[in-house]
Amino acid sequence: MNRYSRRTWVSNPSDLAAGDLLDLSSVAQPYWATVTRVGECAEDPDREDRDCEGDCLAVIFFADDANTPWHVTEEDDQLYARLLADADDDQVAAENATHTAAAAARYAARLAAATEGR
Question: How far is CA 23 from each of CA 9, 45, 47, 82, 109, rounded to the nearest angstrom?
Answer without folding.
Answer: 10, 23, 21, 8, 24
